[in-house]
Amino acid sequence: MIKIKLIQENPVVGDISGNLAKAKEEIIIAKKNNVNLIIFSEMFLCGYPPEDLVLRSDFIKKIEDSIKELIKLTADISVIMGAPSKENDNILNSAYFLEKNEVKLIYSKQILPNYKEFDERRYFSPGKENKIIGFNGIKFGLSICEDIWSEDYVSNLVSEGAEAIINLSASPFTISKKTTREKMLSSYVNKHNVPIIYVNQVGGQDELVFDGSSMIFSPNDTQIFSLKSFKNDTKEIEITKKENLELNILDSQENDYDELEDIYNALVLGTKDYVDKNGFKGIIIGSSGGIDSALTATIAHDALGASRVNTVMMPFDYTADMSIEDAKELADNLSINHSVISIKEIYESFFNALKPSFENTETDKTEENLQSRCRGVTLMALSNKLGYLVLTTGNKSEAAVGYSTLYGDTAGGFSVLKDVSKTLVYELSKYRNLKNVVIPKRIIERAPSAELAPDQKDTDSLPDYSILDPIIEMYVEMDLSPNDIIAKGYKEEEVRRILRLIDLNEYKRRQVPIGIKISDRNFGKDRRYPITNGWKP
Fold first, then answer.
1. In order of start, what are the domains of the chain with their CATH numbers?
2. pLDDT tens per residue, range 425-441
3. Which of 97, 143, 525, 532 is in Cβ range 3.0-4.6 Å of 147 for a Cys bridge?
4. For the chain, how big is the Rg over CA atoms in Å?
């Protein structure tokens, strides 16, 4: 029998010393529990994705020195550690097998993803051969993340003698990926009759969130055991070799999550790690009394605690009394810091200074955008003075069609709802209120409005979100043509207007803060459309 421990941890990209310290601590604990083999996730030692850091020679040298430190701990325990390695002039994405105070084997990832958020071929050379570890009479085939998404790769490992497969992953969360992963790995186990040990990273890294959800698959009883999602977790398993390999998962418990819970937890973790890993003492949000800022503030509260969240209501002539009241009620419900700063004098100062230049022109969107920019300037001034990070509150629906003001409501450092459609904003708000009602009911029930003009509603400029959001999804995430979308029952004039707005507003999206990715295709690394672009679908 051998005892194996899976480490689902939250490494910090570039903090090699900090990640090494976490690894040492886990190894020491594992030794006390008589663990034979401890497994860390993909690129654990440097965090994932390290991007251009791996191009630095001093960075690679630090990795090599850290591996030497780990080797010293392996006299009586074996370690599988994800880290970059260097072979001649090539950098590889590797798994180190450390045993008896030496590097026994290095496996390097062979299938390098180069789509959506991944661009590993920019940094890494592919490994050239499969590697199988003989450990206490059991043959473990090694794989790293994308490798295991290839059925041919898995089949080859098994045909070469692997009795079990270990996969080190740094697989980011998307709404569909958890289910896809589980179905895929389960199908391999059923087909090849070999256990799979899948160890995934957890934590937020810029726009990516890694959900963990590490899994252990046992073919004997088709058991699937999952570690926690969006939390650090560890698990010990015992493997005994008889006629077949028998797995015993110690201290087993069920970890079931639904889709809205996963999305909400991803947004909370992504916000928490961006703020904490970058050293901000707190955040500040422009609270409008609307649904987007309410959900953003609630997520921030759940991520950071009440004392680190600050909201500011910035009323003007068109701000409804109920908006001021609802923003205050939200803050009271969350017990967060809240203040009110009128932008009337700020707006009038700007407007009076610009008045000579505006002479003989009609009032239009310029005056509306000026209000938004007054709020942006106010928030950024508070951020500079108080050291808080400004969280913007725009959602994916607005970003898609440009329903936002550059240097106004887009001003800030991080966008929590950047990849969340307006429809999903409402669903998440209702979901969060099931725990305890913090978002005032009136905020959820009111028709959305930017409140930049008298009696303004979002539907004055846009279709209803029940129509807009599916069209955005089909065009942005599924790459459907206008004719394909129209064929699904949407009005041609409306479809072509929305698609034109999406394409025209790429320049805006390039200038807004990064935000958390939850969909299969977000605005950012996933979708890279040229701004100067003559294509007309």
1. 2-257 (3.60.110.10), 261-458 (3.40.50.620)
2. 999 999 999 999 999 99
3. 143
4. 26
